[in-house]
Amino acid sequence: MDGHVFGSMWSVCVTLCLIIPHLNSASAALRPNYYANVCPDVESIVREAVRTKIKHTFTTIPGTLRLFFHDCAVQGCDASVMIQSRGNNTAEKDHLDNLSLAGDGFDTVNKAKAAVDKVPGCKNKVSCADILAMATRDVVSLSGGPSYRVELGRLDGLISTSSSVNGSLPKPTFNLDQLTNFFSTLGLNRKDMIALSAAHTVGFSHCSRFANRIYNFTKYNKVDPVLNKTYAADLRSLCPVDVDSRIAVDMDPISHKRFDNIYYKNLQQGMGLFSSDQVLYTDPRSRPFVNIWASNSADFERAFIEGMTKLGRVRVKTGRSRYGNIRQDCAAFN
């Protein structure tokens, strides 16, 4: 999950907000057990596919989580990020900000889709957008995080363009106001943002995304002064000046394979990898949430579930919307 799970924020929905004004009514159509009458075992099918994928590679977990955020933040939760570029259309996934999305995230959705479609009665009945939402819940719970009911009923989008990603994703250098403003464009508040940022507990980042903090922070401070000195030295060792651009480091240096509240304890120790992570503790307006969730994992998990549920409602297409359908192939329009 290189970068925010979870760009500049002012053009998040330039295209989609014009053609999908029915956000509230569309998200209200989502419900658990949406597929009870057509594919009643869909959630267990997806979960087993995810479990098998995790056994092959841990990257499944951060890759799927980040894929869900990047999908929902751009044009809404409609699996538009899954589309492959074809002909004259450069799709979302080939935008510079999405090139670091882990292939294992895409593969998780595709494998789960194949498993669902093998079941009589389920073929082409479950959207890729819903499969991604369920798989995201499953990677969280299978890595030690909370399980939760996923609202279902999304349709897959009919548009996927690289240009729609411009300005639609947060930057690792954002301050608290920029983060809050960005998440507000998705209908999420500051509490939601701080809770969802903990997805970085199982994330990873390429060195280039935070190199400025350890080598060239300001004219007077080469290293960001709020960064834990031992942690900064470790990062410089992992990411030397001439590091290979493919090298990535864990965003949680303590428990990177477990979804937990250690993320907040790290922030208390000055070990937030991005400036946008550490600011959640250095800014007094957000610090209370960090302190509470660092000591109360149950409270954090409740907040995370609430944030993920709200994220999953962002600009969805539902029902008989002419803006969506159920794809036969998650990577291609029907």
What do these coordinates show?
It is a single chain. This protein is an all-alpha fold. It is 42% helix and 3% strand. The chain has helices spanning 16-19, 23-28, 42-56, 60-73, 103-117, 128-142, 176-184, 190-196, 211-215, 229-238, 262-268, 275-282, 287-295, 297-311; strands at residues 156-157, 204-206, 248-250, 324-325. The strands form two sheets. Strands 1-4 form a two-stranded antiparallel ribbon. Helix 3 packs across helix 5, helix 8 packs across helix 14 (297-311) and helix 13 (287-295) packs across helix 14. The longest helix is centred in the N-terminal third of the chain and has 15 residues, at 42-56. The chain is globular. Mean pLDDT is 92; it is low at 3-23.
Labels describing this entry:
334 residues; mainly alpha; two-stranded antiparallel sheet; 14 helices; globular; disordered N terminus
The total count of helices amounts to 14
* Main sheet characteristics: 2 strands, antiparallel
Q: What is the subunit organization of this protein?
A: single chain
End-to-end CA span: 29 Å
Helix content range: 40-55%
Based on DSSP secondary structure assignment, what is the total number of beta strands?
4
Provide the structure class.
mainly alpha
Strand order of the largest sheet: 1-4
Shape: globular
Order of helices and strands: HHHHHHEHHEHHEHHHHE
Range of strand content: under 5%
Radius of gyration: 19 Å
Unreliable spans are 3-23
